[in-house]
Structure formats: structure tokens, C-alpha cells
Specification:
It is globular, with a radius of gyration of 28 Å. Strand 8 and strand 9 form a beta hairpin. The protein is an alpha/beta fold. The chain is 47% helix and 14% strand.
Length: 713
């Protein structure tokens, strides 16, 4: 239950924010505050603060204009502080993260009367490694810690790089720069940054001589004292995959808010996908073999290291021929000649089942990579201990330190190889969705490469176990969480239990100010040429003063329509990929400000995250219903599995996902309470197919117009 004191704190803070920012209270926002507060304050815990109840998650769909950020901050922060928990705000996009960090939290702190500290959490790879910086400054160019695998790929003697390093060192040393890549005023190229940062395996933590000056651990100390931590979905998932508590606080000590929560399932699947590039592995194994002389000279004075190093030639000799065999088997399975790889292509295994010959090869590779990973881990542990003055390993610190990053890097690669081959060798539980397994042939630096990949088709089980089952409490919110007006699709993909709280919150907008039109030009897009011509005709009929966003489902069709337009009309078009997104939006705004019309041609990415309120967008044109064909290996495997169990993948996956995308696309038009305009759908299937009514009913209550005739509400 929400006790009166806590309820009073939330209500007082809300009133102060409304007064301080001169905001009008919104019904949907008040409902959202109440729902979050009830859910989080109602969590039962034992005397140690460990959650014992299982109704600790609420899922709230709240459209644009609800004021979601303010609502979840006002409701969740007082509860988190009262329960001694940390509030982690996770977003999917940099734009929202920056808004929360630089606008919403400062406003809340200034006006609410609540006392709190907040910090931004980033992964270790976003921060400068002072030890690596020093090595570059000292000219330690041949140091083995400069990844032997990347030395051949990178230019290491450019004057620009050394000038950059000196600038970074001066700015960090003087305190003018905090050491994170994102706050440096100019972009730093990936190859250059890789030499200046580190990861959790290569970092020596407190054993590093630069620990007290470390940019990452300085930021981490700030995190340790912050009431609110702003992160992103990728970082939260990466932390969970490491067991939790590596960068962020442990899940049991956290209340999470996942804003833009509809992205979470896809992000999670990406995090649990394994890949193995055969030629890439052969290259790093050969590099290791060539380095054994130097490794022995530096490290074999320590008996255990000497024994481990002595085993490497045999381990490499066991792996290399098997990788040659797995390369040949991949070409055989895909029915491709050896050496082919001029263009990228996939070969997916039906229902995710690896053939018996591949499973047998994979089982053998599991064993050899497990041995290699264990030996490298043992070496890395000894090297880390050698950096501790209180530990006596028999290896001087100055001999251990240069080699630890390289051994840690090799250990990480061996672990990833082991994980991939383990997944490839296993058989799936027939009662559960299978894992997708596939081969990719692609040219890398002009050479053919074969990549083996495996991925869960759904992250639901993993999220249920590592996130929802482990956290103290959570809020999932977005403007688009339902599909066809229901939460079932999200539950299925994100592992959210039926017992959690679900609610769609009312929007403050009057959607009748917008007209949803299916005009006479709308045709069935199955006839590509006729559909393309109908789009061209429709564009030609647009008012020359309109501010239009036209969304295409394929780049080929976008280009074809753009090319077919008369010159005078084409001059009004700003096409995605012709310009950087930011510049395209700025040009569009400038044209509207000058009283001219402007038409943006965009693909799916423009259906979400584009904010053009008022006169900057008066007409959204959707050229075709946003069905995605599940032709990627993960989607195709899931569709096969559903079909094998008597289901209809189109109705179960494609239609619900199209509903979400259609709502997102229509959501570009009404961004403020006074906005109005028109949404045109140039796909007649919404009227002629049985799923069309469901797609239309899931949209906001726009006024409707069919073939130029207004429809009764």
C-alpha cells in the first residue's frame, strides 16, 4: 500500500513542479503517477530489503503529450528513496537520454523540492584508459598490449593521432575533460579510440597504477552515490549478461524504468546472439602461435605460466585443422564452391536445426575452445595477481603488466567461440521455440569470410529470469506498447508475466483534429508498377505549401518515385540518405519557415523519433502498410516454428508488428495539443483484407475519410 506520508511527498512534489514550470495538470499523467506509485510502493520485502512479492512490474502505454518522463520520475524516485533502492532510467535512444539528463532531471531538481543526485552510466569502453594513454605517449608502439590483431589493420604512425593523444592527455590532466569519448568536442575514429580504452577483461582495476586517476572508476564512484542513474537498454542488458552489478547496481537493489520500452525485446535478442568468423579465428590463432616465443621469454619464469604456455602449440594444432574442416563443411552445406564470397549471402538451417555433421564438428570445437579458454583464464588470473604487491606469484609486475591485455583479449575471443559452438552443437527443447542457426558468407577486406551465427528467436525466457525475476521493481513505458490494442505481443516477446499490471493511459490530444484518409489513389501494392504510379500521381497532387512526411517501405521504391517526379516537384523533395538526418530536418524546417512547401521521403527509421510539431508537419503519407517479411534468420525461424505448431505467423507476428509500426507512423503528426493535419494511407488492403479493420481500430480516433468521403464516427 502507498502510505500517506509517501503519497503526500509525491503529491506535493507534483504540485510544485506544475507551479514552477507553469504546466497544466494532465489526466493521463496523474493516472500514470498513481499507477507507478501503487505498484512500487506495494512491493513486499523481507527484513533485509529483498523483494518477496511478484507483482512488482507495471507496463504503461502512454501516448505523446502524456508527460511520461515527469510522471515516472515523480512517482518512482520517492518510493526508491524510501525503500533504499536505486532508480535506473533506461532509454533506447541518445536523444531521449540527453533530454532526461539535461532537461527533465534538472527541472525536477529545481522545482519539486525533492533532494537527489543523478549520474549518467556508460560502459567502460566509452572512457579513456589512462594506462593505455601513457603507453602511447611514451611511444610504446611495439608493446603487445596494442592488440596484435589490430596492428595489421590500423595505421599507427599518423601525426594526427599523436596530436590528438597529446590534446586528450592535456585536457584530462588539467580537469577540462572527464575522459569520456562522448564529451570530447570532435569525433574520435574507432581505430584510434580502441587503442585508448579498455574492456572489463583487460582492465586490472585496483591493481592498476593509474586506478585513482581512472576516468571510468571516477564516474563509477559518482554512480555509487547517485539516487538516479541514467543508462540505456544496451548497457542494462550488457550488465545483466555479466551477472549484474558490474557497471550498474545489482538488479535486486534497483527499480528500473524502461522508457521506449518497445525496443527492449529486440535489443535483448541482439545481446544473446553468438557469432564466429572462421578466417578471423584462424588469423588470431596464427598470431598467438607467432607470439609464443615472446610470451615464453617474458612469462615462462613462472612455473604455472610455463606449463600453460607449453600446452598452446598442441591446442592450436588441434583447432586449426578443425577450422579448415568447418570452413569446407559450411560451403558444402550452403552448396557453394570453396573460395566464393564476392557478395554477402545467408544460409539458414530449417527450424534452426544444425545438420548432424555440423553438430559433430561443433561438439569437438566446444572441447578444444573450452580447454583454450580455461588456460587463457588461468594465465590472466596469474598476471592480475602479479600486479598486486601483496601477492607473490614469482613473476615481476613489469613483466606481467604488458601482456595482460593481450591474454585477456584472447580469453574473450575463446569464450565467444566456445559459446557459439556450444549453441551450434546442442539440440533444442521441442516444447520451446528453437534457436536460429545460420551461415553468412561475406567479403572482409577483399577476402571471403564464413561466419557461423546462432541466436534465440525470443529473449522472453532470458528477460524473465535475469531482469524481471531479479529486479526489485520495474516500469515499462512507451507510446507504443500494444499491438492491435492488446499487450499480448509485448508479453510474449519480453517475458512479461500476466500477473503484472498493464494499463493504456488516455492521451491529452484531440485526435479528431486530424483526418485519416484512404483516397482513390490507394491501390493494392501487390502490383508494384501500378502502386508506384499511384504514389507518383498522389505526390503530384500535393499542395505546394504542404509540409509532408512520406514514408516508404523500401529504398528501391523511394528512389524510383523520386526519379520519376518532374524537376519542379523533385526540388521540393528531401530524401533520406541523400543528406544526414539532422541536416535534412533543418532544411525542411527552413523551407517551412520561409513559407515554402517541403516533402521528406523517408524509410522506416523516420516513422519513429521524428519530432516536427505544428506547421513543420501537416501531412503524413504512408505508402504501404508496414508489414515486414520475416526473411532474416531469426524471424524466419520463429515463423517456421509457429507454422509447425498449426499457427499463422502472418496473423501472430506480421499483423501485430504492423499495427505497432502504423501507430508510430501516424504518431508523427500530432505532437502538440493544437496540432492538426492529415494522414494518408496509400494501401487499399486496409479496406479489403480482414486484418484491415483491426489495424484501423488500433489507431487513435482520427476523423476518417474514404475515397474522398467523410465517414461517420
Amino acid at each position: 500500500m502507498l502510505d500517506e506520508a509517501l503519497k503526500g511527498d509525491i503529491q506535493t512534489a507534483y504540485r510544485r513542479v506544475l507551479e514552477g514550470l507553469e504546466l497544466t495538470p494532465r489526466y493521463g499523467q496523474r493516472l500514470m503517477i498513481a499507477e507507478i506509485a501503487r505498484t512500487l510502493a506495494g512491493i513486499q520485502a523481507d527484513d533485509s530489503g529483498k523483494r518477496v512479492s511478484d507483482e512488482h512490474v507495471c507496463v504503461l502505454e502512454a501516448g505523446t503529450g502524456t508527460g511520461k518522463t515527469l510522471a515516472y520520475l515523480l512517482a518512482a524516485l520517492p518510493v526508491a528513496q524510501a525503500r533504499g533502492k536505486r532508480l535506473v532510467i533506461s532509454t533506447a535512444t541518445v536523444a531521449l537520454q540527453e533530454q532526461v539528463l539535461h532537461q527533465d532531471l534538472p527541472s525536477l531538481k529545481a522545482h519539486s523540492g525533492l533532494t537527489f543526485d543523478y549520474a549518467l552510466a556508460k560502459g567502460r569502453g566509452r572512457y579513456l584508459c589512462v594506462a593505455n594513454l601513457e603507453k602511447v605517449l611514451d611511444g610504446a608502439e611495439d608493446n603487445p598490449t596494442l592488440s596484435l590483431f589490430e596492428q595489421a589493420l590500423e595505421s599507427r604512425d599518423g601525426d594526427d593521432f599523436h596530436a590528438l593523444v597529446k590534446s586528450l592527455a592535456e585536457a584530462y590532466g588539467s580537469g577540462r575533460w572527464a575522459g569520456d569519448r562522448d564529451s570530447w568536442p570532435e569525433a574520435i575514429a574507432d581505430p584510434q579510440w580502441r587503442r585508448l580504452t579498455t574492456d572489463h577483461r583487460q582492465c586490472t582495476n585496483r591493481r592498476c597504477g593509474h586506478f585513482n586517476a581512472c576516468a571510468f572508476f571516477r564516474a563509477r564512484r559518482h554512480l555509487d552515490s547517485a539516487d538516479i542513474i541514467v543508462a540505456n537498454h544496451d548497457l542494462v542488458l550488457a550488465d545483466l549478461s555479466l551477472g549484474g552489478g558490474m557497471v550498474l547496481p545489482k538488479p535486486a537493489d534497483c527499480i528500473y524504468v524502461f522508457d521506449e520500452g518497445h525496443h527492449l525485446p529486440d535489443k535483448a535478442v541482439e545481446h544473446f546472439t553468438h557469432r564466429f568468423a572462421v578466417n578471423g579465428a584462424l588469423r588470431w590463432l596464427r598470431t598467438l602461435k607467432k607470439s609464443l616465443t615472446e610470451l615464453n621469454a617474458a612469462l615462462a619464469v613462472q612455473p604455472t605460466l610455463a606449463r600453460l604456455l607449453a600446452g598452446f602449440p598442441e591446442a592450436i594444432a588441434a583447432i586449426e585443422p578443425r577450422l579448415g574442416e568447418i570452413m569446407a563443411l559450411g560451403h558444402q552445406l550452403a552448396e557453394l564452391p570453396q573460395g566464393s564470397g564476392d557478395e554477402s549471402r545467408h544460409h539458414r538451417f530449417e527450424m534452426g536445426r544444425a545438420p548432424l555433421a555440423l553438430r559433430e564438428q561443433a561438439s569437438a570445437l566446444v572441447v578444444v575452445f573450452a580447454t583454450l579458454a580455461r588456460n587463457l583464464e588461468s594465465m590472466a588470473d596469474i598476471l592480475r595477481e602479479s600486479l598486486d604487491p601483496e601477492k607473490h606469484t614469482g613473476l615481476p609486475k613489469e613483466q606481467a603488466e604488458p601482456w595482460l591485455p593481450l591474454i585477456a583479449l584472447l580469453h574473450g575471443r575463446a569464450l565467444e567461440a566456445h559459446a557459439l559452438w556450444l549453441t551450434m552443437s546442442e539440440e533444442d527443447d521441442p516444447a520451446e521455440p528453437p534457436r536460429a542457426r545460420w551461415l553468412t558468407f561475406e567479403p572482409v577486406a577483399g577476402e571471403p569470410e564464413l561466419v557461423y551465427s546462432a541466436s534465440p528467436v525470443s529473449a522472453a525466457h532470458t528477460l524473465a529470469r535475469t531482469l524481471w525475476g531479479s529486479c526489485y521493481g520495474a516500469v515499462v513505458t512507451s507510446a507504443t506498447l500494444t499491438a492491435l490494442g492488446r499487450f499480448e505481443r509485448l508479453q510474449e516477446r519480453a517475458g512479461l508475466a500476466n500477473r503484472y499490471r498493464y494499463q493504456r493511459l488516455p492521451s491529452p490530444f484531440d485526435y479528431s483534429r486530424a483526418v485519416l484518409s484512404v483516397p482513390r489513389e490507394a491501390v493494392d501494392p501487390s502490383n508494384r508498377e501500378v502502386h508506384e504510379q499511384s504514389i507518383i500521381d498522389f505526390v503530384a497532387g500535393l499542395d505546394h505549401r504542404e509540409a509532408v512526411l512520406m514514408l516508404f517501405s523500401s529504398r528501391a521504391q523511394l528512389r524510383a518515385v523520386e526519379k520519376a517526379l518532374p524537376k519542379m516537384l523533385a526540388e521540393r523533395v528531401l530524401a533520406q540518405d541523400r543528406l544526414p538526418k539532422r541536416e535534412l530536418i533543418e532544411r525542411h524546417r527552413a523551407r517551412v519557415d520561409a513559407g515554402k512547401g517541403s516533402i521528406i521521403f523517408g524509410l522506416a527509421s523516420f516513422a519513429e523519433g521524428i519530432d516536427l510539431p505544428g506547421d513543420y508537419l501537416t501531412h503524413v503519407v504512408i505508402t504501404r502498410l508496414p508489414f515486414s517479411v520475416p526473411d532474416d534468420p531469426v524471424g524466419a525461424t520463429l515463423a517456421e516454428w509457429i507454422e509447425s505448431r498449426g499457427g499463422n505467423p502472418f496473423m501472430r507476428i506480421s499483423v501485430p508488428d504492423a499495427s505497432i509500426k502504423l501507430v508510430q507512423a501516424c504518431g508523427r503528426l500530432i505532437r502538440k495539443e493544437q496540432d492538426s493535419g492529415r494522414i494518408t494511407l496509400l494501401d487499399r488492403r486496409v479496406l479489403t483484407r480482414r486484418y484491415g479493420r483491426a489495424l484501423l481500430d488500433a489507431l487513435p480516433p482520427f476523423s476518417r475519410e474514404i475515397d474522398g468521403v467523410a465517414q461517420l464516427p
